[in-house]
Specification:
The protein folds into two domains: 134 residues, Aspartate Aminotransferase, domain 1, CATH 3.90.1150; 213 residues, Type I PLP-dependent aspartate aminotransferase-like (Major domain) (Aspartate Aminotransferase, domain 2, 3-Layer(aba) Sandwich), CATH 3.40.640. Helices cover 40% and strands 14% of the residues. The protein is built from 13 helices and twelve strands. The strands form three sheets. It has a seven-stranded mixed β-sheet with strand order 2-8-7-6-5-3-4, sandwiched between helices. A three-stranded antiparallel β-sheet has the order 9-12-11. The chain has a two-stranded parallel ribbon with strand order 1-10. Helix 6 links the parallel strand 3 and strand 4. The N and C termini lie far apart (57 Å).
Amino acid sequence: MRNLSDFIAHRANAVDASGIRKVFDLAAKMRDPINLSIGQPDFDVPEPAKLAAIAAIHAGHNRYTQTQGIAPLRERLRKDLSAEMGRDVGDVLITSGVSGGLLLAILAIINPGEEAILLDPYFVMYKHLLTLAGGVAKVVDTYPDFRFHAERVESAITPQTKLLILNSPSNPTGVVMTEAEVQAAVALAKKHDLLIISDEIYEPFLYDAPRGLPSAGKLYDRTIILRGFSKSHAMTGWRLGYAAGPAEIIGQMTKLQQYTFVCAPSPLQEAALAALDISMTSAVDDYRRKRDLVYSRLSPAFEVVKPQGAFYIFPRAPAGKSASEFVAQAIENNVLIIPGNVFSSHDTHFRISYATTMEKLSAGCDVLCRLAK
């Protein structure tokens, strides 16, 4: 008789359990920790969006939608995004979160053995989704400034390279690509005939970009733009995102969605349409203040790059300690943070989410600065 482990597919064994989930599990067992680990907004879904969801449920919008999502939402997103990008962005697919969009895009694009380039540090899902697809992650180091270095990226490109994955604003660093960096990325994509996935889930949270987010989608029509409602409107549990890009690619993603997610949640698509008319400026302003607080408090004690977007900061652990060692020490002192090796081949930095109250953020910074001494 086979052992149960013999039934596990190689693709499943090739993927590690998320280090973030391990910290979440640990947090559930702690009594009132200072939790600076969770990557979700600490504000609630806006009341008009909640009411729109309730109304949609009562109105009977509880059945499957078309796989690609309801037409009014797709049409509105295509119109708004095309106006922002200065061109027709192509077709739009409503996905089950940006994570669902990432999975569908990678499955639609990557054949076994083909390569995708991602920048280190990277969002934890990228590498593992490529593994599930049989692809190869070519990881390009961006330390110590976490910027896009075109010469490093180009040196990683081979004849098997098919895809460049960009994440701006970045999780975990909070870095936002400059217009020059985006232009350089697009130039490489054109030169080497690559597709770009531009993961822009944190696009609303920009603190130093008065002209808006520099996006590859403005310059290159072979870009799959991924955005969603989880961060902008605190709808993390609603699982709503969207992908926009060339019709041929979006069509293949839609076909794959038929056999995986089927469609995004029906009544919540109706609510997302209402959410597009809700200003979230006050939430962004609040997070800018939190960014300023955490940077001003930590920068005297830690080597740290000032984040320009999202709601994360990525300090370097104190000299003589790995990030894992420092994180373990912080947890012993009731502060939950994430070791950087969850997002990176380096174990030198740690991620803080400042999506929490000012009081907890200040208290957490006090503990971390004390430990740094």
